[in-house]
Amino acid sequence: MSELIEKILSRDCGPFWQFVKYGVIGVMATLVQTGVFYLLAATCMKCLTADDVAVRFLGLPAADFTGAEAWYATRGSIASAATAIGFVIANVFCWLMNRKFVFRPGKFRWYAEFAMFFAAASVATVIALSIMKALIDWCGIMTSLAVVAEVAVSFLVNFFVRKFFIFKG
To answer: Number of structural domains, the chain?
Structure first.
């Protein structure tokens, strides 16, 4: 059994296990990003409304507003900024983990690899944040549901760019 685990954890495990590991690391990075987002959203970058699922089910504090304040109009921008901060922290974690467990480094020097990894993630996140902001501002979707859409778009774009353009495979 330990041989199987060693094989799965190695970079030579085959495409199926590579995708599974990428997914597990993606979930872990998402937890880091989302954790940072909610820490900021509940404290210094308040962007959660009273009807948000994170407020109702996790007991996070909602910003006090009536809906007419200028704050409410900037809620999507505040949520995007909090997500961007979480993104930076999560992507450093994600790069290190993918380099160690999923993809074979060495196609480029580490700093070029990191720059491309971060650039690809940035492009995917800008696209995903635009979708998140539009869902909040134009569709009135609760912040937490818009975050789920942001995560899904980022995940798919990032896997393909990282697998086929940045790492050796």
So the answer is: 1
- Exposure letters 99-134 (e unless 16+ CB within 10 A, then b): bebbbebeeeeeeebbebbbebbeebbeebbebbbe
Range of the domain at 116: 14-166
Residue 19 lies in a domain: yes
Q: Contact at 8 Å (CB) between 91 and 121?
A: yes
d(Cα 157, Cα 3) in Å, to the nearest integer?
A: 32
Sign of CA dihedral 88, 146, 76, 50: negative
CB 149 within 8 A of CB 132: yes
Distance between CA 80 and CA 47 in Å, rounded? 10
**What is the value of pTM for the model shown?**
0.72
**Residue 124, token pair as written in the block:** 């995917």
77-112 pLDDT tens trace: 888 899 889 989 999 999 999 998 888 888 889 999
Element (H, E) at 78: helix 75-101
Any domain includes 8: no
